[in-house]
């Protein structure tokens, strides 16, 4: 299976900034939503919970939220696929629908904190950085392959 | 311009004048709607009338009642009213009797007279709290659920406190309740040990001061529904959504016709009512929230079998995900 990201730097630069919400619920559906009128309209700042803490609710469930930024050095992208192929091995194509640098992170009746799964998972960026600290050069790779071959020969 | 037209114009100007000037004070039935519609309907609103001087000097009785507990739509309103013990006759003269026996028009008239006639404003004061349906849903859906009874009692006690803070000399408190009176009475006595407190079913029809509170609450709820503006942008002709009771066909139709696939209902609706919950099943996207951590971790010591259960029957070794990653909610994704 291979996945093609069907866009280039030019398109990325032109793509529109999206305003997004990270919701603490699984929504079993896909489609457009009237976010502005049915949700954003009700977002209020509530300093009782701390500075910058926002309140709202979703289907009656109380939400507490906060503005969150995409980790520095990263860019948030929204990719879309017209139709997912039925066969696992088929090639897939993803198109770019927009980008984002910030979004609003919402918890269900809990002030956002470092204990949130989302924030903990962000440690992956550090892990990735540690693993990717030194980019592997082609000559190092060739040398390693060569060494491997030689050691094989010696052993046989 | 003909005379008639002129008259109409003057009336309109007056109305405009009133909505701009008097939105912070309720002085008559007419100013109730503008006061309510000038406030956000996704939050609670409290209104406290001026305290008549005589209520600051003489021992008073205070009545508490609610309106709109059962309906699936709109706010629940708590109301209090108070007057000196010896001014009971004023309540009777106004016609404060069982508010459920009174027609809507009659309640409106009494409410208006309560706020305009001198003999009433000189000795009777009142206050209401409009509890937004948005607040009702979010309270009932909190992780540590807050029942409607708790919401109600907090509102009632809050209003009594407001009256105390405003200088009302309270001696006796009468509360109408639908639930068991004993528990309610106990809770009120703990908070206000110095008052003679009576909690009773149908207090509304027994004590005129409770009837007055009930009228304030009911008239306020009716008006809150009449002037309801939907932040969702919905327009319903004459705000005709029925009584809000699940059995009302108009309410039923309103619920069926105004479902948003993602957000469910407009926030006029109390999502926490089973009528609302059931109406959304199959009609809107299913939504799962990360539920409250209800199951307590059970610890009964390490199980002996734990040393064996990593191997399957075929001898294959199942590897547990690295703890560093699993604790941070990280896992490898191969399918999306």
TrEMBL record, chain A:
Q: Which Pfam families match?
A: RNase_H2_suC
Q: What InterPro entries does the annotation carry?
A: RNase_H2_suC (IPR013924)
GO CC field: ribonuclease H2 complex
Signal peptide residues are none
Kindly list any coiled-coil regions of this protein: none
> Gene3D superfamilies, from UniProt?
2.40.128.680
Instruction: Name its GO BP terms in alphabetical order.
Output: RNA catabolic process
- PANTHER family, per database record: OS02G0168900 PROTEIN, RIBONUCLEASE H2 SUBUNIT C
Mind telling me what this protein is named? Uncharacterized protein
Species per Swiss-Prot/TrEMBL record:
Drosophila willistoni
Automatic annotation (TrEMBL), chain B:
Q: Name one GO molecular function term.
A: metal ion binding
The organism's place on the tree of life at top rank? Eukaryota
According to the record, cofactor stoichiometry and binding are noted as:
Manganese or magnesium. Binds 1 divalent metal ion per monomer in the absence of substrate. May bind a second metal ion after substrate binding.
**Coiled coil region boundaries:** none
Its cellular-component GO annotations read: ribonuclease H2 complex
Give the required cofactors: Mg(2+); Mn(2+)
Q: Which PROSITE patterns match?
A: RNASE_H_2
What's the EC number here?
Answer: 3.1.26.4
Give me the residues that bind a divalent metal cation, please. Answer: 65-66, 176
Could you say which enzyme class this protein belongs to? hydrolase
Q: Which reaction does it catalyse?
A: Endonucleolytic cleavage to 5'-phosphomonoester
Q: Where is the RNase H type-2 domain?
A: 59-285
Which Gene Ontology terms describe the biological processes this protein takes part in? DNA replication, removal of RNA primer; mismatch repair
User: What InterPro entries does the entry give?
Assistant: RNase_H2_suA, RNase_HII/HIII, RNase_HII/HIII_dom, RNase_HII_hlx-loop-hlx_cap_dom, RNaseH-like_sf, RNaseH_sf
Task: Recite the UniProt keywords alphabetically.
Answer: Endonuclease, Hydrolase, Metal-binding, Nuclease
What NCBIfam families does its record include? ribonuclease HII
Q: Which family does it belong to?
A: Belongs to the RNase HII family. Eukaryotic subfamily.
Q: What does this protein do?
A: Endonuclease that specifically degrades the RNA of RNA-DNA hybrids.
**Descriptive protein name:** Ribonuclease
Phylogenetic lineage:
Eukaryota, Metazoa, Ecdysozoa, Arthropoda, Hexapoda
